[in-house]
Amino acid sequence: MKKLIVSFLIFGWAVTLKSQNTGVEKSTIGIQTGILGIWVHSENRLSPQIALRSEIGLDAGIFGGSLYYDGTGYLLIPTISLEPRWYYNLDKRASRSKNTSANGGNFVSLKTSFLPDWFVISNYENIDVINQVTVIPTWGIRRNIGSHFNYETGFGIGYRYSFAKSAGFAENESDLAANLHLRIGYRF
User: Fold this and answer.
1) What digits encode the pLDDT tens for the residues 169-186?
2) Which of 5, 7, 75, 138 might form a disulfide with 122, Cβ 3.0–4.6 angstroms?
3) What is the three-class DSSP state of 22?
4) Is residue 103 a contact partner of residue 96, using CB atoms and an 8 Å limit?
5) β strands within the chain, DSSP E
6) 3-state DSSP call for residue 12?
7) Are 187 and 42 spatial neighbours (Cβ–Cβ below 8 Å)?
């Protein structure tokens, strides 16, 4: 009887070692970079499958061949984003023994960003940007590489509103906006 009880205890201990948290992490902080920028982010759990991601960073852009700039230029502008994310497959990934730590799974989100005209880093002088807000529904994935590194990709099409009147134009403008990102990051 003692052998049976000890066997059950060892089995139960081994099962608890293998199990992982299948919900969204309570809080995670990290930094990510991609082809067009660098960002610092924090994700906080709102429910077992929903997290609120807040992000601040620098979005990059490349321009050239226009009427005003005869060469090729680059710019970095600040951006602030809030993004509720629904991680819809964490339980399925955990049941297949896939790594779900640091919210490693597929997600659907509503990325809301503000790009202010606070400053611009560029190889041209006197570059200004127009304040704008974007709201973009996005589908994406995040996967972990080891315990601290991750990569993330996502795609979405949404709405952009530019405050052009404040920059001297006759009317504010709105149009379609895309969110296509591929990032690699480090989690603290």
Assistant:
1) 899 999 999 999 999 999
2) 75
3) coil
4) no
5) 27-34, 37-45, 50-64, 72-87, 106-115, 121-122, 132-145, 149-162, 173-187
6) helix
7) no
Both tokens assigned to 101: 């730590």
Residue 100 has pLDDT above 80, yes or no: yes
In CATH, what is the architecture of 23-187? Answer: Beta Barrel (2.40)
The HSE-up count of residue 178 (CA atoms within 13 Å, CB side) is 3
How far is the C-alpha of 184 from the C-alpha of 128, rounded, in Å?
29
State the Cα–Cα distance between residues 177 and 159, nearest whole angstrom: 5
Which segment of 3-7, 35-39, 74-78, 174-178 scores lowest on mean pLDDT?
3-7
141 in Cβ contact with 106 (< 8 Å): yes
Residue 121 phi, psi dihedral angles, 5° rounding: -100, 120
- pLDDT higher than 80, residue 134: yes
How many C-beta neighbours within 10 Å does residue 170 have?
A: 7
